Amino acid sequence: MPSTGPRGPAGGPALSAAPVRCSGAALERGDDPAGSAPHLAAFLLVEHHGPWGQSVLRDSRLPEDVRRHLGGHQHLKVLLARRHHRAHRGSSYAVMACFPGRRQLLVRTVEDHRELLDVDVAAIARGEAPEGWDPAPGPVYAVCTHGRHDACCAERGRPVVAALTGVRPEQTWEVSHVGGDRFAANVLVLPEGLYYGQVTPEGVTGLAHHHEAGRLDLDHLRGRSSRPMSVQHAEVALRRHLDDDRLTSVRLVALDAERAVFAHESGRWEVRVERRTGEPARLTCGAAGLSRVPTFAVTSLVRLDPDTSEAGGA
């Protein structure tokens, strides 16, 4: 019986198969990005134009004492940032602190990265704004291009950051690993802390226009990093149900272990979400083995009567 496997030149057997990338596999599976953004209190972006290595707080060329000082803080994402295809000129570096829960973005400049040793990083991780930093204009678009961490981030992220730099050069940065490699290209929008996944070079300019018009791209929205993943998924599900992409039209008003309640001009809505796992898959290109694909499913989405009790805190 003739072979039906892949064929190489002149009909011979293929020498090697193309690598299966985690982002391509996620697209084929139809993985929904909603509810996949890391839950964080703050971001700290540090301009750094040298090699980042696989892990920026272990392998980058930041001074070792600075890397130790920046690391080990829960609820804080430290990102190294650089301009796309632009050599660093001058003697200073931008440092930005972002608190997505209150949509606050602050900036300062340093002449030497060792000046970061004077920054109370633990306080930033607790959501406390550093004193003496200046308000920064937004939005800032941070595109993950961290190829040493995952090949998809480079292969899909670099065309996206190039396209966005062409229309938003002062607002666009390429950054280190933001999380969620299988959803590359990933775009983080600050100060709101909005994660977008599976963004394309053809679509990223429209995403920026949409955001600046006060709207969300619900097809690519992974979630708001200031909220737990289940709440991120609940909000996207409700917005899809209401067909409402306005940035501030849905407000979280109550939350407990089982449900989230949102306020909208149409009333108050209760959304219950259940965490599930899908089939085993390689969730990053560098994964040593297979893991269950994490998913969420809405088990209940109802509009509440005006007198319905809403126990729980926002």
UniProtKB/TrEMBL annotation:
Gene3D superfamilies: Glutaredoxin. InterPro entries: Aim32/Apd1-like, Thioredoxin-like_sf. Coiled coil: none annotated. This is Sucrase/ferredoxin-like.
